[in-house]
Amino acid sequence: MSLKNALYAATALTLVSSGAMASENLVIATVNNGDMIRMQGLTQDFTDKTGHTVEWVTLEENVLRQRVTTDIAAKGGSFDIMTIGMYETPIWGANGWLVPLDDLSADYNADDILPAMRAGLSHDGTLYAAPFYGESSMIMYRKDLMEKAGLEMPDAPTWQFIREAAAAMTDRENDINGICLRGKAGWGEGGAFITVTANSFGARWFDEDWNAQFDQPEWKEALEFFVGMMNESGPNGYATNGFNENLNLFQQGKCGMWIDATVAASFVTNPNDSTVADQVGFALAPNSEGIEKRANWLWAWALAIPAGTQKADAAKEFIEWATSTDYIELVAANEGWANVPPGARTSLYENENYKDIPFAKMTLDSILAADPTDPTVDPVPYVGIQFVAIPEFAGIATEVSQEFSAVYAGQQTVEEALEKAQALTNDAMEAAGYR
Amino acid sequence: MATKHSRSAARLMMAPAVILLLGWMLVPLTMTLLFSFKQYLPLRGGDLGWVGFDNYIRFVSSSAFWPSVTATLIIVGGVLAITITLGVLLAILLNQPMWGQGVVRILVIAPFFVMPTVSALVWKNMFMDPTNGLLAHLWRFFGAEPVSWLSEASMTSIIMIVSWQWLPFATLILLTAIQSLDSEQLEAAEMDGAPPVKRFAFITLPHLSRAITIVLLIQTIFLLAIFAEIFVTTGGAFGTRTLTYLIFQRVLESQNVGLGSAGGVYAIILANIVAIFLMRIVGKNLDA
């Protein structure tokens, strides 16, 4: 080989190797909640370690869902990493739209991911998204108001107890509502809550042949109970309250109890944001007397890589960084252990520093009590607790929850809403070829 | 005067803009038409073939169709009635000589510069919230039970929010028209002993009819596609689901592009019927 050729070869080799090592700019779509915003603030740590830069597209939950769904379905290729949940992951994984995450590095320790989270973010045993944080739902209550009402909250209360306690805590003169719950239309808002409530009354969305079950007595019982309790002890206009509205009410001291996502625990116990931070107690989500299933869900906001991205390797590096134990320690060092992303890793709950956090144990117990593969009393053909993991569900459940919200607003009766829900669900399932 | 040569030069120079504009309209329109005859489900593998008029039949036979058309027409009608009535009154008021007229005019026009999403959020959280809203505090101050505006009076609330946004537009157009009214004519009528109501009915209002027509036409076209305010406030619940919102639900929430496209074609037809109807009834004013 002549010197000239050798030089060419060396130059080419240098170019190839530097290409492989090149730093990339990753575009990440994410949801605008506290933990994600915190991650954005810490991005520099990732850039320092890997050389890759990050561009954030931060969106409100509903908008994020629509953007990423449209982008991936139309192969738009706008993002290198997407923040998605337990509903989307198995469906998209099955369609081949996500890069499998079964080859993450040994340091990452994928076996440390909580089994329930791993199962919910996999399809056919392959992990398609890494959980950034995981959650279930639980009761958050005001210890002072409980005491004033002369009651004591058990660790695992029933709905009947919750209804009595809510009535006892309600103090309309002082603007205190016994209980605040989601009534806002939308499958991920009020739709999710009424579904888990129905599960805990023995109801289900579909029978094993995909027939809608809204004509069954369990749904009527659940809905009537919910409406009755909220009319007695809920806030005015609860039909338009979702997660954020209830969080505000609770932080302002206007709710005796609130049953919602376990991640809310760090917000209601943070004295900077909450006027009742030192008075909050926690309990498992309720069940109905004689029924084992509780009204708690399972959810994870997770990071996934759309198939077709040119930057899959860099994207994997980011996912490893954001969902690793090192990241948890980075947040703890900067903002304290109460603010680390919860519910994703087993090791967090074995960590001595985290054990003292007041809501840690109840969060873990709630997550462990939820099983997406067996969500209801009677058998069902679907996976998912507060949702049904089929592509048609988001559309159907949004319409059904709109009918329910109209009941909460006093615009129609429980019977009318259930009748409409039954008809529109069966219509959609027929059109989709299930029935 | 334009010569043959300059006319062809003008055509040549305008061609790129015209082609671009046509493409801008024709491409989405053609795609909507194409998809409306297909079973196109992005989450189930995409294009599943031609289905003829199935999507059209399913869209209109769905129980949500007629209520959505009714909701659309109620919102359009309500907002038009409010903005035109109040617009005329405000235009007359703002035309009176007063101290700080310029500032008052800017304040009246200001809502038009607020983005629909922002104004809907402000109304929802600061005014209409049944616990923390300004209106709730006002109601409580007078000893009344606060109203859950967005759920109990959802249609009224949305009409109020949208009217607030569109009132400046109507006022601005009508104010410009009123300023061109010959004051001598009004003075002559006054000297002849015509009372204020008659002066308004027989001189001011006829003079404003052309401006009112413009407001009616432009607002109708925009209001038929109203979306952001509903998305932010009620999410289509409580009977506020308009035709546009229903199409959005079919395409984005149900991920059924074919069905939604059929809805889109219906919306185009409806908008054109309304526009032609308006042109014929009130458009005559424009020729006068």
Give structural notes.
The complex is a heterodimer of chains A (about 425) and B (about 290). Chain A is about 45% helix and about 15% strand. Chain A has 19 helices and 11 strands. In chain A, strands 2-1-3-11-6 form a 5-stranded mixed sheet. Chain A is of the alpha/beta class. Chain A has helices at about 5-20, 35-40, 45-50, 60-75, 90-95, 115-120, 145-150, 160-170, 190-200, 215-235, 245-250, 265-270, 310-320, 325-335, 345-350, 350-355, 360-370, 395-410, 415-430, and strands spanning about 25-30, 55-60, 80-85, 120-125, 125, 130-135, 135-140, 175-180, 255-260, 280-285, 300-305. The N and C termini of chain A lie far apart (about 70 Å). Chain B is mostly helical and about 290 residues long. Chain B has one domain (about 60-285): MetI-like fold (Orthogonal Bundle), CATH 1.10.3720. In chain B, about 75% of the residues lie in helices and about 5% in strands. Chain B contains 14 helices and 2 strands. In chain B, helix 8 (about 155-180) crosses helix 10. Chain B is globular and about 75 Å long. Chain B: InterPro entries: ABC_transporter_permease, MetI-like, MetI-like_sf. Chain B: Belongs to the binding-protein-dependent transport system permease family. Chain B: It is found in: Cell membrane. Chain B: This is Binding-protein-dependent transport systems inner membrane component. Chain B: Its main location: membrane.
